[in-house]
Design goal:
heterodimer; A: 214 residues; mainly alpha; extended; B: 280 residues; alpha/beta; Rossmann fold; 7-stranded mixed sheet; 10 helices; 52% helix; globular
């Protein structure tokens, strides 16, 4: 039981709509593409509507419009936000140079946070955890060395178009095989994951909708 | 894709679905065929929650993916119920629209299940991706939020200092990795627990090994083991009563293995024949 729907009339209607949509999607296995296409349109339309609602109700109104009305003169950064919204809505009369400023700030800020976070939160701590291991056991050190070797070989596997000798070629080849093994293992996870999702949908049809499985 | 494969692909797929459905119907549970076993320990979540202060405030970063949420849904519901069963309080925040949609649905479900509303606070949706995480870590605000007033006041006054643990429900772009990168360096020693679909395991596992994530429920088996061991009392009503059926998954895996083996075998045979032709 997914539990997303209550037992009232609205919940029952929701269950039926979801069941029909599920059957339509599964119907594509039989080659029924038209209904499947409509279900994709339905998903896209619902997602767009939800995004618009979310943007207006939880972002633009409470974080931009309300503060501008309350204290617009004291907070000039909000006007930059308003310009950004207008730019995002592609208001044609807004000068491009003016609209480019807040967009540039947003893109630059996100890139800076992402890069800084990757260095501080991932690269340095991961190197620290892999290399610096005070009091590590022999097995742990060996595992770390193995991981470092595998990482190095896989990185070498990405070296293309550079003249190289036999050793480097062999190392790059080993790296590519390690990469294939890794992707294979990941695909195994993917198959399991998708099967769980399929079983969940079948469970929804047999349980929530038809009431055959509890 | 060849015409022949197109012809057999539809009926074959339908047959697989029917077989899985029949297996689901006939044998919902079989002794000896269980997901949680002695090999998995529930990802260390139980121990991590035990280590928290009494009546902890847990910030839940709720950003799963619509496509994979079904895999972690029973585990997430059990985890939320577990926190409440430990007299914990939960503040939910989402940084992606998909996450927000699912968080809204889960909060509505908790309300239908008559969970103590005073112990829940909905911080809503915060736009801005990584910048939103930084904003959250440095200046958590409750304006626009809804839920228990006392909890809201505590969060408004102390911000992230009031938070005892962070649970990240992952699957979307802003998952456990983003929280580790953006929030963890800014909030000190607040433990991060994560629930993710299996497909994210290779991405998240290194952070568990390095200790940056205190506990992880990253596989179906981990989730099942955790659910088996959770002591929820009457809050059991907030969890999913139907467990994931194992037999259909096993059948599906066998079918997938046969299909892949057939493809691999055909490729090997093809390569052998082509070499034979070259030699002759």
């Amino acid at each position: 039981m997914t539990g997303f729907f209550g037992e009232d009339a609205a919940g029952t209607a929701g269950t039926w709509v979801a069941a029909i949509a599920t059957l339509v999607v599964l119907g594509s296995l039989l080659g029924e593409r038209r209904l499947f296409g409509w279900s994709q349109h339905l998903l896209a339309g619902l997602a767009t509507g939800f995004l618009a609602l979310l943007a207006i109700r939880e972002v633009i109104a409470p974080r931009l419009v309300d503060p501008i009305i309350a204290e617009g003169a004291a907070r000039p950064e909000l006007w930059a936000g308003a310009i950004l919204v207008a730019a995002a809505a592609t208001v044609p009369w807004l000068p491009r140079r003016l609209a480019a400023v807040p967009i540039s700030v947003v893109v630059g800020t996100l890139a800076a946070f992402a890069l800084g976070g990757a260095v501080i939160g991932t690269i340095v701590p991961q190197l620290d955890a892999t290399i610096a291991r005070p009091g590590a056991t022999v097995a742990g050190t060996a595992a770390g060395a193995l991981a470092a070797t595998a990482t190095g070989l896989v990185l070498l596997g990405f070296v293309h178009g550079v003249p190289r000798g036999r050793i480097l070629t062999a190392a790059a080849s080993a790296g590519r095989w390690l990469l294939i093994v890794g992707i294979g293992a990941w695909l195994g996870y993917l198959v399991l994951s998708r099967l769980v999702l399929l079983v969940d949908r079948l469970g929804f049809l047999l349980g929530d909708w038809l009431g055959l499985v509890r | 894709m060849s015409d022949r494969w197109r012809r057999i692909g539809g009926p074959g797929s339908l047959l697989l679905v029917l077989v899985l459905g029949a297996a689901l119907w006939i044998a919902p549970s079989l002794d000896g065929l269980t997901l949680g076993d002695a090999v998995t320990d529930g990802g260390g979540v139980d121990e991590a929650l035990d280590d928290l202060e009494p009546s902890p405030i847990v910030l839940v970063g709720f950003d799963p993916d619509l496509g994979t949420y079904a895999e972690i849904r029973p585990t997430v519901r059990t985890l939320l119920a577990d926190v409440l069963a430990r007299d914990g309080r939960i503040a939910v925040v989402s940084l992606t629209p998909e996450g927000r949609a699912l968080a809204t649905a889960e909060l509505a479900r908790l309300a239908r299940g008559e969970a103590n509303a005073a112990r829940l606070f909905d911080l809503g949706f915060i736009p801005g991706a990584e910048a939103a995480l930084v904003d959250l870590a440095t200046g958590l605000t409750t304006s626009g939020g809804a839920g228990g007033q006392a909890l809201g006041r505590e969060l408004a006054e102390d911000g992230m200092d009031a938070v005892d643990a962070i649970v990240v429900v992952g699957g979307n772009d802003l998952g456990p990795r983003s929280w580790v990168e953006q929030v963890a360096p800014r909030v000190g020693n607040v433990p991060i627990l994560a629930v993710t679909p299996t497909i994210l395991l290779p991405e998240v596992q290194p952070y568990v090994e390095s200790g940056q994530i205190a506990a992880l429920l990253g596989t179906v088996a981990d989730g099942a083991a955790y659910r088996d061991g959770a002591e929820l009392g009457n809050l059991d009503r907030l969890t999913e009563q139907t467990e994931v059926a194992v037999l259909p998954i096993l059948i599906g895996l066998l079918v997938a293995a046969v299909a892949m083996g057939q493809a691999l075998g055909a490729r090997i045979v093809g390569a052998a024949r082509s070499r034979e032709r070259e030699v002759s």
